[in-house]
Amino acid sequence: MKKDKFTVRDLVNAGLFSVLVLAAVWVSGMIGFLPITMPIVPFVCTFVAGPVFMLYSTRIKRFGMLLIMGIIFGAAFSASGHGIYVFPGIVIVTLIGEYILKMGDYNSIKHARWAYTVFALFAGANLLPLYISRESYYKALVESGYGVEYADKLMTYLPTWSFVPVVLFGCLGAYLGAGLGIKILNKHFKSAGMV
User: Fold this and answer.
1) How far apart are CA 84 and CA 163, in angstroms?
2) Which region, left, alpha or beta, applies to residue 158 given φ > 0 means left and ψ of -120 to 50 means alpha?
3) Mind listing the pLDDT tens digit for each residue in 17-32?
4) Rounded to two decimals, what is the model's pTM?
5) pLDDT of residue 143
6) What is the Cα Rg of the chain in Å?
7) Which of 158, 128, 155 is nearest to 141 (CA)?
């Protein structure tokens, strides 16, 4: 049942699951150190984090719990040098995810799955600098120690036309990862009264 006010438990759940989902994304994103794997990083990250997010969805009972996750994601990615677009971009997709959860009255597995699929658009916010300001992104890669060879390969594997397919592939990873989470966590959904 939906309550009107945040409890300490809600804040602890929001913080804990935000860190867990972020850790799953961050660790699985390490495959991006190989330029050839960069096009699949959004898919792998969102797929791996899907079951964790779906477990969190059993605890989301009011507006703002997903927003807290979005703010934590935005702050972490901003602090790690992902550019100026990442924080507002993540907050915007998080608000859309919040709306989707609200449409399901915070009690729908289907709405939780779609909210996570939309939340996966955060990958687009992370990649935006690579596509919008390619030359300065390239220069920053070289200057930060990745080297010319890495930067050249990255630009080859992520051509300018690849933004939309890469981001949509990330959404597919989220949808499938959420599906895996639904199968694994079926008893949690039942105990939470989610349908």
Assistant:
1) 17
2) beta
3) 999 999 999 999 999 8
4) 0.90
5) 93
6) 17
7) 155
